[in-house]
């Protein structure tokens, strides 16, 4: 049995039972839902604030750019922090820092340059939190429960992000921008409080590498990805699919208005279709992911995500495009759960934060490339052609991953955990870091 599907032969508990019985995972789940929901609230409020105070579309674009792209540039360092310090402490500090920064924004509502600086700092703290939270999951559940745990956390986070803008629309008339930002600040502080329910997750020392400086550790993390075929293929495949398909958000707007001759409501419907598919996908994976091989789920996710855009380019109506985009969301959920689970099983614990940090930072860069390149392609052609080219490129890279990944996984070896670590895991209770759920051992 391959490393990535270890323990898959045993029956895993349901997501509900896992969250009910494993306290640290439940705390992480609640913290992610609270902070992600608050974050989506504040982004809507800030976009409206910048649009109303500057009247410039460029200013709104800069706000989104510093929030999504700037943190990606230092992702090797953000991942190294997760491997260097206690994960529980890292996550709590990140939430507190974000809460304080949002509080400053809410109280001052500063001019645009200072606002962008504060948003960039908050985004960097969020970028540090992401690999830490992904790396923490293997320390909370047994290996055979990783698929279910990743699916459950993904479902909660995406629910919060999906319903956050709706909550913002309901709160803004009563609380205005400053009030909504204060709610977001409170959400980060509540998340930090919930995370205190987890236990310490100290870093795992790497006996084969000198700790050195943070920059040295960041270089070690990059080197590990580049020289490890299976990890490199997963990472590059994910980034390639995003680089081709990230343009869909822009292309769908033009497809609905110019090609399908529909109105603004149809634009919102198409943009929301992927989110609906994502939620359904995560919900299904919380129940059925353990029955699937993770490499097959990863390749299938790449294929469905890419083919969804290709078929959307052929859509003859808004209903057809909506259906295909919703199915595409299922593929994106599969990509996320499969990649996270495979990396958690294949990467040594001492390097896991750096691998996740580099992966999600690279995905951010790939998305930015897709926005720019896709925008140029839209200007040169039209929305259907752009979606078909984007989907076709993603399908091509999916085939490359499908051909090269199985052999790389067969040749991949991961050192077994030290005997004392395995013994501690077996002896740990369900609420301890690394402790198994009551239905099985790690």
From TrEMBL:
Membrane topology (UniProt): Multi-pass membrane protein
InterPro entries from the UniProt entry: MFS (IPR011701), MFS_dom (IPR020846), MFS_trans_sf (IPR036259)
Which Pfam families has this protein been placed in?
MFS_1 (PF07690)
**GO function term, MF aspect, one:** transmembrane transporter activity
A Gene Ontology cellular-component term: plasma membrane
Q: Where are the transmembrane segments?
A: 57-78, 229-247, 267-285, 297-319, 355-373, 385-405
Where the record annotates domain Major facilitator superfamily (MFS) profile, the positions are 216-442
UniProt keyword annotations, A-Z: Cell membrane, Membrane, Transmembrane, Transmembrane helix, Transport
Spans annotated as Disordered: 412-442
* Annotated Low complexity bias: 427-442
Organism domain of life:
Bacteria
* Presence of the UniProt keyword Transmembrane in the record: yes
What is the name of the protein in this document? Answer: Arabinose efflux permease, MFS family
Taxonomic source organism: Goodfellowiella coeruleoviolacea
């Amino acid at each position: 049995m391959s490393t990535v599907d270890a323990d898959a032969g045993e029956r895993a508990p349901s997501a509900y039972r896992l969250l009910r019985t494993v306290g640290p995972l439940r705390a992480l789940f609640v913290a992610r839902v609270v902070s992600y929901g608050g974050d989506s609230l504040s982004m809507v409020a800030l976009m409206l604030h910048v649009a109303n105070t500057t009247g410039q579309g460029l200013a709104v674009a800069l706000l989104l750019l510093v929030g999504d792209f700037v943190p990606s540039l230092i992702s090797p360092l953000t991942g190294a922090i997760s491997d260097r310090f206690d994960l529980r402490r890292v996550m709590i500090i990140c939430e507190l820092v974000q809460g304080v920064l949002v509080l400053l924004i809410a109280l001052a509502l500063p001019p645009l340059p200072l606002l962008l600086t504060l948003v960039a700092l908050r985004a960097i703290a969020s970028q540090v939190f992401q690999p830490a939270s992904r790396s923490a999951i293997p320390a909370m559940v047994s290996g055979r429960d990783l698929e279910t745990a990743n699916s459950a956390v993904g479902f909660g986070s995406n629910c919060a992000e999906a319903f956050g803008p709706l909550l913002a629309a309901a709160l803004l008339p009563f609380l205005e921008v400053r009030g909504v930002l204060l709610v977001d600040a409170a959400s980060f502080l509540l998340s930090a409080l919930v995370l205190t329910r987890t236990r310490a997750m100290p870093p795992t020392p790497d006996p084969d590498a000198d700790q050195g400086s943070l920059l040295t550790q960041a270089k070690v993390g990059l080197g590990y990805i580049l020289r490890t075929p299976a990890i490199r293929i997963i990472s590059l495949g994910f980034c390639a699919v995003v680089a081709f398909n990230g343009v869909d958000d822009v292309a769908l707007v033009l497809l609905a208005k110019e090609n399908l001759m529909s109105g603004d409501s149809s634009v919102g419907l198409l943009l929301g279709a992927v989110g609906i598919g994502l939620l359904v996908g995560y919900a299904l994976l919380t129940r059925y992911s353990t029955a699937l091989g993770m490499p097959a789920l990863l390749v299938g996710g790449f294929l469905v995500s890419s083919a969804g855009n290709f078929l959307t380019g052929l859509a003859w109506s808004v209903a057809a495009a909506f259906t295909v985009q919703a199915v595409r969301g299922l593929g994106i959920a599969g990509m996320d759960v499969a990649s996270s689970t495979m990396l958690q099983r294949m990467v040594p614990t001492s390097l896991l934060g750096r691998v996740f940090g580099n992966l999600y930072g690279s995905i951010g860069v790939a998305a930015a490339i897709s926005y720019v390149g896709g925008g140029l392609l839209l200007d040169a052609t039209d929305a259907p052609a752009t979606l078909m080219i984007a989907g076709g490129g993603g399908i091509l890279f999916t085939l490359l991953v499908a051909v090269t990944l199985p052999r790389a996984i067969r040749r991949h070896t991961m050192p077994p955990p030290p005997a004392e670590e395995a013994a501690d895991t077996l002896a740990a209770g369900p609420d301890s870091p690394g402790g198994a759920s009551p239905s099985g051992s790690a």
